[in-house]
What we know:
CATH superfamily of the largest domain: Intergrase catalytic core
Number of domains: 2
Strand content: under 5%
CATH topology of the largest domain: hpI Integrase, Chain A
Mean pLDDT: 83
CATH architecture of the largest domain: Orthogonal Bundle
Radius of gyration: 24 Å
Structural class: mainly alpha
Helix content: 55-70%
Order of helices and strands: HHHHHHHHEEEHHHHH
Distance between the termini: 36 Å
CATH class of the largest domain: Mainly Alpha
Largest sheet: 3 strands, antiparallel
Strand order of the largest sheet: 1-2-3
Amino acid sequence: MNRPKREAAPAMRATDRSDSADKPDMAGLQIExxxxxxxxxxxxxxxxxxxxxxxxxQLAVFLREQGADLARPGEVSRKHIQAFLAWLFRRGExxxxxxxxLAAVRSFFRFLLRSGRVSENVAxxxxxxxxxxHHPRALNVDETFALLDTPKAAPPSxxxxxxxxxxxxxxxxxxxxxxxxxxxxxxxxxxxxQLRSRVLRVMGKxxxxxxxxxxxxxxxxxxxxxxxxxxLALPEEQALFVGARGARLNRREAARxxxxxxxxxxxxxxxxxxxxxxxxxxxxxAAGADLRSVxxxxxxxxxxxxxxxxxxSLEHLIRAYDQAHPRSGKx
Length: 331
């Protein structure tokens, strides 16, 4: 099915531009107040604040084109929000992006409702776009071991490359061994890794802190990396994982690292950092771990979020049944 062609973003009319030159951007001020509240009261990350700010600014521009104004939120109706989603669809936005934008609008109107600026949350009356079911690729156990163990068999002879490989393997071990989100792993500081206690202090979504256990191989990989880290890190840098220039490692570099380990392991495909977290959960459930324990290890707020992984585990069990049970009829 072909995706609809992108429409151009609605442009401001000349009268809008002349008005905005004389008046303060009240919609922008409302959005800024909301983002401040989101940071202080909800502990939203910088990435969330940036995404929500962009989403609400896009809505404000769209509403002006429709003759409404986010600066007068009481005049915004459910139909305005539905029209905004329809416009996003015609532009070819992914349904996951549309859902995130709707979540931003709902949260914004919830903030306005609590502060008495609107009498109802009109965005809460709009249903989420139906999402395509998509799971990141989960590695099987053999593929995971190949990714983590093969590079150790032939370490680089050059010292700088060997240090980078120590870092790369430590990062991959944490993503798989502790089931961390990539944002959680990259936000770790030196004092968050407690090797003697074999735990990590992890700051998860919504600034929720948890302690995550460290596997034996994770401890070994971290110890090897910490012995080399000082050769790469800038003097005042506190990040556990640093890039080639000595500052905190970023998401793009991390994605390249995991893809590089896939290639070194001889895998016929590459995976994202999140696939290692997905594999962690899938392997635990396949081995019989209970759902509540996996929920705590993953740092999920709701059990329903963890239940997404049970589908992959169930498919694994069905395949095992079909291959082994004498009455399956699919041998």
